[in-house]
Specification:
The complex is a heterodimer of chains A (716) and B (113).
Chain A (H helix, E strand, L loop, with lengths): L7 H4 L2 H24 L4 H7 L6 H13 L6 H9 L2 H5 L6 H7 L2 H11 L4 H9 L2 H34 L3 H14 L10 H51 L3 H10 L4 E9 L7 E2 L4 E5 L6 E6 L4 E2 L10 E9 L3 H34 L3 H12 L13 E9 L34 H6 L6 H16 L2 H7 L5 H32 L10 H12 L5 H37 L5 H24 L5 H25 L5 H26 L13 H19 L5 H8 L1 H9 L2
Antiparallel strand pairs in A: 1-6, 1-7, 2-5, 3-4, 4-6
Chain B lengths: L15 H32 L11 E2 L2 E2 H25 L14 H7 L3
Antiparallel strand pairs in B: 1-2
Helix pairs in contact in B: 1-2
Amino acid sequence: MIPFFPLAVAQSSTALIVFLIYTLAVFGLAAFSNYLMKSKSFLSEYFLGSRSLGVWAFALTFAATSASGGSFTGFPARIYSHGWILALWIASYMVVPICTMGFLGKRINQVARLSDAITVPDVIRDRFRSPGLGLLSVSLIVFFMSFNLVAQFKAGSKILITLLGDNDTFQQGVAWTQSITSGWGFLEGVAPDYFLCLSLFAVAVIAYTTYGGFHAVVWTDVMQGIVMVIGVVIMLPLALYQVGGTGQLASEFREMTPPKVGFVKVSSAVPLAQPQTLNARWVVLDSDGEDGMRLLRLNTPVVLPAQEEGETPATTQDIRYVELTTPIEIERQFQRLKEDRELVVFRNEIKSILEASLETSDSSDLRKASQDIEQIDTAILNNAPGMNLEFEILVEREDAYGADKPGVYAMGPGPSGPNLANTPEDELKKDEASLMTSLGFLPFSVAVSFFFMWAISGSGQPSNMVRLMAFNNAVTLKKSIFTVAMYYTLIYFPLVLIFCSARILLPGLELDPDSIMPRIAVELTANAGQAWLAGLLVAAPFAAIMSTVDSFLLMISSAVVRDIYQRNINPDASENRIKYMSYLTTLIIGVVAMAGAINPPRFLQDIIVYTGSGLSACFLGPIVFALYWPRMNRQGMYGGMLAGFAAHFSMYAAGMSINDSFFTPWRPMGIDPIVIGLLVSFVSTFAVASLTPPPEESLVDRYFRRGKALEESETH
Amino acid sequence: MSETPQEKLPDPQWDPVYLHARKEAMLILGVWFLALLWTLPVSYYNGFDSQIEIEQVTFIWGMPSWVFWGIGLPWMIANLITVWFCFCYFSADDLEPPESTMTPTEQESAGDA
């Protein structure tokens, strides 16, 4: 077992190779897609793939776009932090495929064909013959999706940082980036590794999306969808085996209590001969007179500098730590660390042999090997050779809900998770947000909201709707619903099992949960003696985020080129002009999103939830009525879209005054804004449409009567 | 379609694609609601610590029994319903429009501006 080294995947360069292979593959797909476009109508092909998607392409692009980066970063991190309650959080995915694809799929595809629509605003505009409605829907899509795109760019960059980690080539690139950007004022305070990863990610995604269009996006989605499911299918048996089987998993969860978190001050009692990195190291402390010991994992990357003889020994504070609290966990982890201490002795022996060889030889390989061994961390910081460190706990916090409750990870509402401010001086604010955490992770009312969130809200996402316009026939739709249902079953339920197991295999990561996916991939494959697999597994979250970003990028540029430029500014634009406008717009939007992500908002997941639920509150109700209610009129559309937007937005705005944070919305009785937004939108759509004149009969004929549709079209 | 719709469908006939899609959408809403009615109460009464102590929770294949009965089992049943819906209930309608249709520009000239 090699649990405490820097990520092995980064050391072996596998991650970099995987990334390069990925990038080359998506560029290849983009080139092929561009070649295909030459013989077809550019707009329809670029933004909708000429409505020609078959089962596998349609099913996997739908699944991969929906899955997003959250499925492989945020979701595993939440399972790790809160336990089995995440199975209830995600439970409505059992009906998500049938709801999101079957509820609107057939009708929106038919209506889009009737009006020859390419985008969602196209459908709305043509269904009611109203350019005003088209512009309103374009505005809402651009507003929400631009926010989301910035957040996704940040997520992609963060994953790439974890992926590339301590790779030598990457570190050289970071140093080079730092040297060339140090004089640029607007990059002041931006971490060079983040900026480098953001640039790599942005260049890859913008280039292949711009060049390849919809088909390139779909094909990369297919490739990425396959990578995701393979990753999960490999990890599940490895995780269950390494945790000791399902019986062991159960017994551990019966006992498990949430860890404590806090800040510790570290001082060196004697001058240090060499600088010491304090991140990701374990510390064993006495238990203040009680039986047993205290086991802490340090989580802040700080270097204690070396001193000359006579200098004041180094001291550093504000080091964040996680302290295990379950006796069985502490004992097991301590045993692992002891095993690792034996490895330290072994390393020292090897080092002394190498140094002896260096006296007789000047081999650069030997010198490099000696330096490499020097850099390997020891497992227990204060027990390592030559260490004489002292530790003082400055701040100690427990979960607002679940502390000292054995079994809390196996039950609802689940532990609230650690809540540690960035500095010891910051105190927890006694606002509604902290009151909510005192109710646990998923109180029952919030669980009800999430049943709406995934299955119902997912149907209202324009990015899903545009895919529903792209399949080639109804047989493809029914086979795809089945395929996606099997796909989600293979992904989501196993993810809960895998990352519950991760709590046992890799404890102490509560303050860095977003890194759990790559860490567990490395841990599982290294323990199984198949380290090369880690590269493939780590590629899964990267694949997920890429497939979401490319789709959103294309959504926004199609809204600008098709719905604003071609349909409102220059209807007679030549195909060549539209083509270059599309390339340019996709490129500009990508670059602007990248610029926005240089200094991104802090609350990534909150932005994704806000934009996703906001789009659904605006579009789902009006679209459902537009497709299924002949009495629906354009006034109802305006009413539903604006009321949904206002209701949803006002609950977030109320969060500003109640919780001092826009992204912590007001939740009356724990009900999420998505539920209120959808309710208001549906009721408003129905009420406004009912109280205003009925639509022209010709519209009803066209979209609801088969016999009349042809007759009506022939009379014009 | 090779034949004109008027030959088969008397005027004014609701479009069968619309009727089938509406019927399927109603069924889907029902399936979602049934899933909600099963999952939330079963999970709440058997898995929330306001209702039950950890000592009373049993485990099945490594997962708490409330996850198995409240989420795992209905998930499998939802999959079976999805299979039935796709291959027995769903109508594989022809989605192609009648051959002669107005362009969007023509439609707008007939409607508001």
